[in-house]
Amino acid sequence: MSVEGAVSTDRLDYLYQHYIEPVRARFIPVFDLLREQGRIKNIPAEVFYFLVTSGGTAPYGQTGVASLMNPDLASTEETRVRLYAENVAEVLINGLSLTD
């Protein structure tokens, strides 16, 4: 996935439509519900997805996949990169769950 996800190609489109998007379609509603219930932090689902599947820097090595998920993820604009990095650091250092 690291190689195929780096650039937009027909192969990436196929992988995304047949493997990644079906998983996201099942995962994101649960993730959103947990956020709405106040059980987890307000971290974008894409941050969690990349942390679980490929690591914190994945959107910048897999720009093709990142662009398909959310074009803002592939942005190299400093404020977007900083926000993404802060979200990754938050999950890695403090976890995803909210404490009572």
Structure characteristics:
100 residues
Task: Describe this protein's structure.
With 100 residues, the protein is mainly α. 64% of the residues lie in helices and 0% in strands. The chain is built from five helices and no strands. The protein has helices at residues 10-36, 45-53, 58-61, 63-69, 78-94. The protein is globular.
> Order of helices and strands, N to C?
HHHHH
For the sheet with most strands, the description reads:
none
The number of distinct helices, counting runs of at least 4 residues, comes to 5
Range of strand content? under 5%
Taking the alpha carbons of the first and last residues, their distance comes to 38 Å
Radius of gyration: 14 Å
Uncertain segments: none
What coarse outline follows from CA principal-axis ratios? globular
Write down the oligomeric state.
single chain
Summarize the entry for a quick read:
The chain has helices spanning 10-36, 45-53, 58-61, 63-69, 78-94.
How do the strands and helices of this protein lay out in sequence?
Layout: H1 10-36, H2 45-53, H3 58-61, H4 63-69, H5 78-94
